[in-house]
Amino acid sequence: MRSEILATAFLGLAVRSIISLYSYSGFDSPPMHGDYEAQRHWQEVTVNLQVVEWYTNSSNNDLQYWGLDYPPLTAYHSYLVGQIGRSIDTRFVELHKSRGFQSKEHKRFMRATVVSADVLIYLPAILFLSHSIDKTFRSDDKLLLFTLVAAYPGQTLIDNGHFQYNNISLGLAAVAIAAIFRGRFYTAAFFFTLALNYKQMELYHSLPFFAFLLGECVSQKSFSSFVAQISRIATVVLTTFAVLWLPWLRSLQAALQVLHRLFPVARGVFEDKVANVWCAVNVVWKLKKHISNDQMALVCIACTLIASLPTNVLLFRRRTNVGFLLALFNTSLAFFLFSFQVHEKTILLAALPAIFLLKWWPNELIIFLEVTVFSMLPLLARDELLVPAVVATMVFHLIFKCFYSMSKRSYEYPLKYMTNMSQILMISILVASLTVPAPSKYPDLWPLIMSVTSCGHFLLFFLWGNVQQFSSKLS
User: What are the alphabetically sorted keywords of the record (predicted)?
Assistant: First the structure.
């Protein structure tokens, strides 16, 4: 078993290394470049300025140029990576002068930092979760889950191609999920708080954690046990927050400035062609012309909570491992479809629980996972990552096919029909986008078609996930 795990890990690292050879976000695209430059710039800021200055606009920290807008744990990580980078070549993070810095050596260094996070955090975390999900799983089941997560092209293309560190927040979340399954609730609270303090998008997973842990507290046999349990969990969460936020808690203004950076309402409900409801609605009814940003933020909050409430109420009342995964899946989809300031990459938050649900619904969720990659194709195409995206998705599908023989019900109507139609539709749109130029009047036609098509799929999967949670005996 150990040799198979090592082989799978090396396979995952090999795929990541190959994708790392391709282009990245913002390559040779001044003046703003892209996410690669954003990560480099955060390293520049954190190693050259005092901690309390990291989120504050100044002559040395122009927030209009990739100002830090992730929580403190990301900033600390940027500081660590920046210090290592400076020890290799001071030009990597030289204040002001390093803007837009590009070199082969720097690319190798930056790519290595992502792979290091894969090795140290992401792959061990998903292996731990694969071994924690269900005691009845055979070794082959655990190995298959680990293989599929390691080979999932969405996370690999975004982190090792486009360039981000989703592997850290997703890895921390995976450890928290595994801790829930093992009944280690204080550990779960600690690691999820770390995940949330690395990327605020982990709010997509927050309600299921809250519902599950609150349900465990309420189920205690006595009121004193309830108070003790909830107090310990609250202490873990608040202490972790306090330690991470300590430099900014000494001033209310500093703390509010960090929050302002983390939740920038002024940016609008979305910035690009993202596969959620508001982008789809905007095609026929221009939201910015009729609703202010503040009003839209309230609408998004209300819709997201309404969409998330049923699955989490059920989880609070009936807590099972599969039910928890379904709640994570349904809630993260609700946030992706209805919340404010959604980015293409945040669909990865729904993909994580989806992969671990493949054991029970393989034929349905393999399509979902393929749609998640399809929804990010406009972003990946801009980064010249279309070829590795297609190849990596094909490899992922082949791995799935090798391990999962299609069950008899997959040949029944309407599942087979819907599966085939989804795949044909996505392939047709991709081929058309490559062969048929968009009209000059509508230059974003194909990205928009991809986004709306993906949104339709995600809405159907959101309904499907809720039906499964309320009807399946597993949940």
Answer: Endoplasmic reticulum, Glycosyltransferase, Membrane, Signal, Transferase, Transmembrane, Transmembrane helix
